[in-house]
Each structure stands twice: as C-alpha cells, then as structure tokens.
Write a structure and sequence with these properties.
mainly beta; twelve-stranded parallel β-sheet
Amino acid sequence: MRKKSTRLLSAALAACMMLSVLPVGAFAAEPGAAEPENGVSAQEETEPYHLNGGETVNDTFVAAHGDVYELSGPYTKSITVYTTKNVTLNIVGNVDVNMGSALLNVKDARDLKINAGQYDVVANVKNTDAAAFMNLNASNATVVVQNGRYLDGEQRLSFFTVVAGTLELNDVYIAAKKTTFPILNGSVVHINGGELTAEGYYIVYNAPWPWAGIEKAGTVNIVSKGGNLLLGIGPNGNGKIPPIMQERLLQMGEWLKVNGEAIYDTYKWKQSEQWSEGDRNWKDKGKHYVGGNSILKQTVDPDPGFAVKEAFFTAKNNAVYAILPKFPENQVILKDIRTSSKTKITLLGYDKTLKWKQNGNNIVIEIPTIPYSKVPCQYAWTLKLEYVE
C-alpha cells in the first residue's frame, strides 16, 4: 500500500498534466461575473498599520490589523505588546521618544522582529532610570532588532532593558552620553556587529549566567589566537560592584590560580586550536550569523553533525599548553605534534607526570582517573607539553 504522501504527489502531478493541455478559454470568467475595477484584485493587500502611542498590540488587535506594523514620528505615550502571535515592527522614519518610559513595553510575545533600517531613534527621556526604546519582560519572547541608530543627548539612560526573554541586536548603533544595559533574571542577550559610543558604559547583571564557565572559554579562545581580553567591571548607582560580577571575578581568579601559566606571557602557537570531525560552520537555525552562544556549541554542547574545538593552544619558552574545554575520559589525542627525547607532559594542578606515546604525527596521552575532590579546576583543563614541536 502506497504512503499517503506518494498518493498526494501522484495526484498533484496528474493535475499539472491536465492543466497543461487545457485551453486558455477554460479559465474564462463566467458570464455576469464581476470584473475587478482598474485591473486591481479584490484581494489587494492593505498597507501596514501605523502604531500610535498608547495602543496595545494584543491578539484581538492582531486579528483586526494584521501582524506587520510601522513606527515613525514623535511619541509621547508607550506602546504595549501583549500577544501570543508573531509580530513585525518596521521603523519607516525617524522616531522621537518624548516620555519618561520606554516606547515599547513587551509583556508577552513569541517572535518579535524590529527592522529599523538606517533610521534614528532619538531619546528625550527625562527619567534616566527608564529604558528609552524597549523594556522586554516576556520570558517566552525572542526579540530580534535589526539595524537602526539609537541616540540621546545629555542623558544617562538605557535603550534596552531585558527583565525576561531573549534579545538579539544585529548591527545596531548606540550613541549616548552615558548608558547602561540592564540584563536581569537569567534573560539572554546576543549582540552581533554594530557599535557602541559612550563616555560611560556598563552592563548590570542581577542574575547568574546560564553557564558560569563561559567567561573562561571566551578568554581561552581569545588568548589562543594571540589576543588579549579586556574585561570591564563597573559599579552600580550606589558605587558597589554587583554580586554576580564579584562571583564571576572570583571564579576567574580561581581558574587562573591553576591555569594562569597557560595564559600570562604566552603567545600564539603554530596552531591556535584543534577541531574534531564534522561541519565547523555552526550557526543558529534560521540565522545568517554566529550567535552569542557559539562558544558553547563549538566546544561542549555541539549539535549533531557539527565539529567542536577539542583544544586551544598557547606557547611560552619550551612549553606548549593545550587547554581542553571538556575533561577527557581515559585518553586524549593531540594532532600534528611531534615529541622529542626531552618531552614531558603534565596536567596543571595535578602533581604527577602523564603517560603518553607517539602515534604517527599525533600524541596519545593517557588521562588518569582523578577523584572529584582532586580535580584541579571546574572548567577548561590544561595540559603542559614540554619540548614538542
């Protein structure tokens, strides 16, 4: 018995063959049928609705006005988005925000796309504790902002406040006297391209990052390519360093106590990283760029069929350091490395020399079973290879 999909395909092909031999007159309108005026179809699409201040985009509003809207001109009242539908907002002219709160309050949404083009969103916000453009407080929402210039005068304000949900900023330009970027309650922000110009700038985290080791992986990725990491930590309005920032600094300090030898005063080796088999061009589904969680997807949490970076390399004096994002089981193979009679391999923070053997152009290193309490660190473990090439 043929599958339903096969029957449907056969029927479709048969219909196409029948249509190809029918005369054009077979599709003529019946006598007396109404003709469209001026050649315009009766099903002509309406223009996108222009949102006005004070309106609420909910499911009823979407049913009445569609799911694509336009923004432009001055606003003195906020617009609320509170819908379970996917919505698109197109900025079609410069926008002036003249109020003490955000222009957009997103309280519920699914996929909200904001296309700003090359237009300006100019904030004249009197309350500097408010977000000038958008306050996102919708855990189910993913908001993607594409392009646009977000400008202010002499104010200190945030253009985007993320209380809950996911925000992606793609090629967004922000220019402000001083600005903040509050990211709260475990929400997620991806920044891809764009530019920030401000005399003062700090990001406020009031909740844990989804993976505490991401800073270490980011640091290792930068240093292995010969770069330096500049980590900015700023106080809040009370002059205090937020607890989450304190925690991350302490965690990085603990990691560097063990692995700092592989970071400080090192330089780029002949290869900066080692890849596994698979596709190296991972990107978020439906996106043309590599998103902010690419470090995770390209190291410890790969999607099926995609490669991961198995090791990052730095070098100093007679040593090469292989920093492993995942702690290996039983053994690890480092490719295209030649040993010598003086070669010695150790695990930083572990007091015993490791066994190894040369296998062609690769080194096979045996990893001992280490009790959890004796593991040198919690993230990114470092092998020190002396006198190799």
